[in-house]
Amino acid sequence: MKFDIVVVSHASLDLYLDKLYLGGPVSYCGRLLDELGANYLVVGMVGKEFPFKDYYKKRIKSNILVESTATTSFVMEHIKGIRHIKISAKAEPFDIAKIPKEAIKARYILLSPIIDDMPIEFIKRLSKRTNAKLCIDPFNNDNGKFSKMQKIYFLEVANYVEIIKLSQNELVGLSGFKDLNEAITNYLSKFNNIFIITLGKNGARIYKKNEINKTVRGIDLCPFVDATGCGDIFFAGFIYGLSKEYQLEECVLFGNICAGLSVSSKGVDSIPKKEDIIKMYNSLK
Fold first, then answer.
1. In the chain, what is the straight-line distance between the N-terminal and C-terminal CA atoms, in Å?
2. Considering the entire predicted model, what is its pTM?
3. Spatial contact of 243 and 285, defined as CB atoms under 8 Å apart
4. CB 103 within 8 A of CB 41
5. What's the rounded Cα separation, in Å, for the pair 232 and 12?
6. Distance in angstroms (rounded) separating the CA atoms of residues 171 and 220
7. With contact defined as beta carbons under 8 Å apart, do 195 and 188 qualify?
8. Taking a C-beta distance cutoff of 8 angstroms, is the pair 36, 240 a contact?
């Protein structure tokens, strides 16, 4: 079977003051794609004692869970409206040998490292083995602070993928330019990739050199509870749109709606219902 979308990332355990939540890009993306009825597969890395295997069987049904020495885990706190994250455990990095053959045959492969766990060599080897369009959210680092090695990593990643998602803060940190337009003109213009720059409630900017540079409106809904996973939900929605042959701007709008409807509760069950997503999309496109 050839999948439209394959998501490769780590699941995580997110410990809040109230309880332990399932997290990680593979969980948020997979949960949305399952809700949308997409032709998808998630390849997630988890520890042997991962406590949410039954959840995956019921709610993220098309999955292959790869065993690691540990599940990536975080302690989460919100202090004065700002999310603070502390790493308490880290899974192994991905290796091409852990990726099943059926995943490599997909139309789109979404890659989303969490904490420096997707080496360049892995991405390079994957790009040589697949005809899929590779899409990546290369950082889980919205504070915009990057080491020299991380900046080099980004430059290398761009050689092997077609679509790159960044937050505005990440672009500022990578480029050194605080103004979004200056960062695009002086930094992103050096690349040939399609870039999706998320702008929070203000939407997202699509950029490809000499082709498109446009902001698509965001969805600012109340009540706001938690934005954890919004970037993953947005990107999965965006790639779902690509798999349905939507235009780029329509894909961004679809992703914005998926993310905007997800902030009213916490955890992967914040994923909105398909009928609500489609209804809003049809009213706004």
1. 32
2. 0.95
3. no
4. yes
5. 13
6. 22
7. yes
8. yes
Give tens-digit pLDDT for 45-97: 999 999 999 999 999 999 999 999 999 999 977 666 666 778 999 999 999 99
Per-domain boundaries in the chain:
5-284
Residue 19 has pLDDT above 70, yes or no: yes
Amino acid at 152: I
CA-only gyration radius of the chain, Å: 17
Rounded CA-CA distance 76/102 in Å is 35
User: What is the rounded CA–CA span in Å between residue 103 and residue 1?
Assistant: 10
Alpha-carbon span 2 to 261, nearest angstrom: 30
The predicted-structure confidence for 188-203, as pLDDT tens digits, reads as follows: 999 999 999 999 889 9
43, burial (CB in 10 Å: exposed 0-12, middle 13-18, buried 19+): buried
Q: Give whole-number Cα distances, 215 to 180, 181, 184, 212, in Å.
A: 11, 11, 12, 10
Please return the burial class of 135, using the count of CB atoms within 10 Å of its CB with bins 0-12, 13-18 and 19+: buried
Altogether, the residues listed in the chain come to a count of: 285
CATH of 5-284, one of 3.90.1150.10, 3.40.50.10860, 3.40.1190.20, 3.40.830.10: 3.40.1190.20
Write out pLDDT tens, residues 227-241: 788 899 999 999 999
DSSP 178: S
